[in-house]
Amino acid sequence: MLSDNGSPVSLHIAGAVVEIKLNRPPANALGPAIIEGLHKGLDAADALPAKVIVVSSALPGFFAAGADIKHMSTVDAASFGAYGDALRGAVERLANHPAVSVAAVDGLALGGGLELAMACSLRVAGSSARLGLPEVKLGLIPGAGGTQRLPRLIGRGRALDIMLTGREVAAEEAIRIGLVDRLVPAGTALDAARELARELCAASSPAQRAVVRTVDAAYDRPLAEGLRYEAEQVNELFERGEAAEGLRAFIDKRSPEFV
Predict the structure, then answer these.
(1) Cα–Cα distance between 245 and 254 in angstroms, integer?
(2) How many whole angstroms separate alpha carbon 137 and alpha carbon 47?
(3) Which parts of the chain span the membrane according to its record (predicted)?
(4) Among 19, 92, 115, 195, which one carries the catalytic annotation?
């Protein structure tokens, strides 16, 4: 199913996958219309409920070039703060969504665009992708999670290098340092993300959510506490029946039928 075609954000729903496609020429600046569209996409994911969310772009050469600088330059401090809160709200809602999320990045993903991609569970990049957080060149810092997520993905030193210089990172470097998870030929990121989504849909959603929670706990909790949390999640999955189906399917030599 395709909806809102021609709007700043279009939605495509196929089975348990919701595809959120940015389409605001010339560069998918993350203005109020795209923020609203992101929420509509996440509403659709809630309603299904979706197992996978794919975030992509309809514009050749751009994933998203960042926050809406033209909008930012015309507002007062209060409105600037409200805009920042709105953008952060959409990014954090995506980051905390129970569905696995995949960013399909072809072309530029800068500033808020990279922050949106980093909020996804996984990132697939085309070989022409260029990523960066250039806010220091505007007298600002990343404000939609970039200062927190980038060092968690690639380490403090590499994150500082990228943020202090504001430089762009080519796709080959991005895969090497762990900023993206899969590298594919230019122009094929969306196809690869869709294939990954199909692969993800075959697994247990509760188990996937538990994986994300426990991996996040590795960053937020001491090791001993994280190990206890991991054990709790394993036991909970066994008790709810997902594991029973997975184990029985393995014994029966068939594909599991997860909810």
Answers:
(1) 11
(2) 40
(3) none
(4) 115
Q: Is the pLDDT of residue 199 over 80?
A: yes
What are the structure tokens assigned to 74, written together?
Answer: 């015309």
How much is the pLDDT for 130? Answer: 98
Q: Does domain 205-252 have CATH number 1.10.490?
A: no
**Per-residue pLDDT reduced to its tens digit, 105-140:** 999 999 999 999 999 999 999 999 999 999 999 888
> What's this model's pTM, rounded to 2 decimal places?
0.88
Q: What single string gives the DSSP state of each residue in 30-80?
A: B-HHHHHHHHHHHHHHHHTT-SEEEEEESSTTEEE--B-HHHHTTS-HHHH
Quote the CA–CA distance of 136 and 134 in Å, as a whole number. 6
CA-only gyration radius of the chain, Å: 19
Q: How confident is the model at residue 6 (pLDDT cuts 50, 70, 90)?
A: low
* Residue ranges per structural domain of the chain: 2-201, 205-252
Task: Please indicate whether residue 225 is annotated as part of the active site.
Answer: no
Residue 19 designated active-site: no
C-alpha to C-alpha distances, 50 to 13, 35, 47, 148, 200, nearest whole angstrom: 9, 20, 8, 27, 11
CB atoms within 10 A of CB 239: 10
Question: 19, 36, 92, 135: which one is catalytic?
Answer: 135
Give the contacts of 130 (CB within 8 A, at least 6 positions apart). 107, 108, 109, 110, 168, 169, 170, 171
Q: Is residue 119 within 8 Å of 149, Cβ to Cβ?
A: yes
